[in-house]
């Protein structure tokens, strides 16, 4: 889970790689949950993260409305 008061969140590539490796070890889908001030928790699939020129990953506040709320995501998992 990453949070920010700014309009973006940056995640180091090493963190994403470790998350992918860990998740695949359990047969799970790697996701990142992002929280911006005054917005609900949102779920991002790893493939939806933007890559910056420096190789880090970015989540921009302007893109969060397209994502599932965390509660909705969990509800969908339960069926």
UniProtKB/TrEMBL annotation:
Keywords: DNA damage, DNA recombination, DNA repair, DNA-binding, Endonuclease, Hydrolase, Magnesium, Metal-binding, Nuclease
MF annotations from Gene Ontology: crossover junction DNA endonuclease activity; DNA binding; metal ion binding
Protein name: Archaeal holliday junction resolvase
Catalytic activity: Endonucleolytic cleavage at a junction such as a reciprocal single-stranded crossover between two homologous DNA duplexes (Holliday junction)
Pfam families: Hjc (PF01870)
A Gene Ontology biological process term: DNA recombination
PANTHER family reported for this sequence: HOLLIDAY JUNCTION RESOLVASE HJC
InterPro entries per UniProt: Hjc, Hjc_arc, Restrct_endonuc-II-like, tRNA_endonuc-like_dom_sf
Matches recorded under SUPFAM superfamilies: Restriction endonuclease-like
Gene3D superfamilies: 3.40.1350.10
The protein's required cofactors: Mg(2+)
């Amino acid at each position: 889970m990453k949070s920010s008061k700014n309009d973006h969140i940056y995640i180091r590539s090493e963190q994403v790689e470790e998350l992918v490796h860990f998740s695949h070890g359990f047969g799970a889908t790697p996701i990142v949950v992002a929280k911006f001030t005054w917005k609900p928790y949102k779920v991002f699939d790893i493939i939806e993260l933007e890559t910056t020129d420096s190789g880090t990953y970015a989540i921009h506040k302007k893109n969060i409305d397209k994502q599932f709320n965390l509660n909705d995501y969990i509800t969908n998992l339960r069926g």
